[in-house]
Amino acid sequence: MSRQINNDGLNLVKQFEGLRLEAYRCPAGVWTIGYGHTHGVKPEAAISEEQANHLLAEDLAESGVQVDQCVNVTLNDNQYAALSSFVFNAGIGNLTASTLLKRLNTGDYDCVPSELSKWVKATDPKTGNKVSLAGLVKRRAAEGELWLKTDSDDPFLTSTDMPQRVYADDPRVSYRVAARDGLRMRSGAGVNFDILQVLPIDTEVFIIKEKDGWAAIDLQSDGAIDGWVSQDFLKLKSA
Q1: Is-catalytic flag, 26?
Q2: Which one from 17, 111, 115, 143 is the annotated catalytic residue?
Q3: In Å, how far are 40, 80, 222 from 4, measured between CA atoms?
């Protein structure tokens, strides 16, 4: 039996997904019903609130299993709920490819809220461009707050006062395109994949993962893979 998401996590998901008893298209153009359920939804579908709660329980159980399968460190109930909410919304593929997971699995628990905050873009179905959405900004903030929620009596950790010295949390290494004629970004790791675009020399990129001399890169610093390039034509930005 899979671990259940706690009430704080369940309420967070319900708040941001909202309840719709008739099928609708989400902002990204995906047919959706109930509390953000998307599997097999048809345009004319209609359900009851009881069915919506049942579908949500199933979806969150699936998300939780996926979190358990890829996270190698111990999570408390709030941390587990926060990541389950993220996976339910963004998908397990984005978590497994993320800097968030890589850092968390080294024991860097503190990185999670700031890494979550990068995942605020969706593809506009009208233009095909990635755009930031206010709803995603708010949801990532709520998930980060749930991640940090603690029973600690440490006044530093629990204070609502704003500290006057704050620091960025982004240790990723920046690379630049070193090919004078531009670098072909492809849809997969190899020359047989389609060319998505040509990146001009000195374009800044972040490497998300590597495979056989190819790098999956992030162009917009949002944690999402934009395409693949040959690592032979990437240099450290400071180099």
Answers
A1: yes
A2: 17
A3: 24, 9, 29
